[in-house]
Automatic annotation (TrEMBL):
The chain crosses the membrane at residues 27-46, 66-86, 98-116, 122-144, 156-173, 179-203, 215-237, 249-269, 303-320. Residues 329-343, 353-370 have a biased composition (Basic and acidic residues). The lineage of its organism: Eukaryota, Viridiplantae, Streptophyta, Embryophyta, Tracheophyta. It is found in: Membrane. GO terms for cellular component: membrane. It comes from Rhynchospora breviuscula. Residues 31-320 form the Sugar phosphate transporter domain. This is Sugar phosphate transporter domain-containing protein.
Length: 370
């Protein structure tokens, strides 16, 4: 008689090692990653095309960001208030006091991050911007220490220094180095890192649960309001001087739709996989953008560029490896899984992120609430 498995059947008739449900989950994960990479890639290249003086030649980054925020605000309002396809959070409810204390600071930083990041496309190549964005883990970790949301660890700091060194070498080898463009991109990284930390302090820790639509419903109008001030002072006079300019509704409408779709894709990727998966996918996207920038846009990518970014890439890869090993260690110790409410709170933090950083909010939120 053949050996029996625990369910009572023959061992020969036991299911394969990789079940159909597991295979389906793996394929779905690859699908989510592919969608996010495609949309992120599209938005970055699309923004570069619109803002670059050598391409579409519409160098108004604040206006472009306001178009995005206005489109997202309007579409989110219609989905929430008109069609009522999405329910607003009820526990805790978004009171005016909570909105001004929690959402407004995050919206202000988000507007600065988008403004500075889009402005950098006027002065820097796509490939070099992606290299500078490798500093995001460094900025988030440093900001976390300042706000006492992270503990100082010598090994982690050495890892951060190695990433910084790699970016510095890449900057040294940049053929189109522009100090003002670098300053704008670094300011965008700093604003984004501060925003990610404040999400933990002001939203996640209070149990505020937002889905992708409601996050845009609350945050996008706030961003639009903050951007109005610099827009009136910086770009409105220049736009008035261009009275003959007629905006291409197809170009700007498609660009805004891609930006809205990317917000949904971020939630889909992090909510259905993990923040770590998004980090790894972000590295793949960065290399694809560098290759595209060199081969299609014809940006100059020097060997020193690649050598420096290679150092930064290894630093980021090692950081992701350490995080993965930490997660495996927790599972091995039999640590309890987060409750559904906790998982929802962690996803809420991920919803408010920028379109192309190396974010790691989820795991840090876990540690701060453990």
């Amino acid at each position: 008689m053949g050996a029996q498995n625990p369910s009572g059947g023959d061992a020969a008739s036991s299911p394969p090692v990789v079940s159909e449900s597991v295979l389906r989950k793996v394929l779905l994960s690859y699908f989510y990653v592919s969608v996010w990479i495609f949309l992120s890639f599209t938005v970055i290249v699309f923004n570069k095309y619109i803002l670059d003086p050598k391409m579409y030649n519409w160098p108004f980054p604040i206006s472009l960001t306001m178009v995005h925020m206005g489109f997202c605000s309007s579409l989110a309002f219609v989905l929430v208030r008109v069609f009522r396809l999405v329910d607003l959070p009820s526990s805790p409810s978004m009171t005016p006091s909570l909105y001004f204390k929690s959402v407004v600071p995050i919206g202000a930083l988000y507007s600065l991050s988008l403004w500075f990041s889009n402005s950098a496309y006027i002065y820097l190549s796509v490939s070099f911007i992606q290299m500078l964005k490798a500093l995001m883990p460094v900025a988030v970790y440093s900001t976390g220490i300042i706000f006492k949301k992270d503990d100082y660890k010598r090994s982690t700091m050495l890892n951060m220094l190695s990433i910084s060194l790699g970016v510095a070498v890449a900057a040294y080898g940049e053929a189109r180095f522009d100090m003002w463009g670098v300053t704008l991109q670094l300011a965008a990284v700093a604003a984004e890192a501060t925003r990610l930390v404040l999400i933990q302090i002001l939203l996640t820790s209070k149990g505020i649960s937002l889905n992708p639509i409601t996050s845009l419903y609350y945050v996008a109008p706030c961003c639009l309001a903050f951007l109005t001030v610099p827009w009136c002072a910086v770009e409105l006079p220049r736009l008035r001087a261009m009275a003959s300019f007629q905006p291409d509704l197809l170009t700007f409408g498609t660009n805004s739709l891609c930006a809205f779709a990317l917000n949904l894709a971020v939630f889909l990727l992090v909510g259905k996989t993990s923040a770590l998966t998004m980090n790894v996918a972000g590295v793949v996207k960065d290399w694809l953008l560098i290759a595209f920038s060199w081969s299609v846009i014809k940006d100059t990518v020097t060997p020193i560029n690649l050598f420096g970014y290679g150092i930064a890439f290894l630093g980021v890869a090692y950081y992701n490896h350490v995080k993965l090993q930490g997660l495996k260690a927790k599972e091995a110790q039999g640590e309890k899984k987060p409750t559904p409410a906790k998982e929802t709170d962690e996803e809420a933090g991920a919803l408010l992120r920028d379109i192309d950083g190396n974010e790691r909010e989820e795991d840090r939120a876990n540690d701060s609430k453990a």
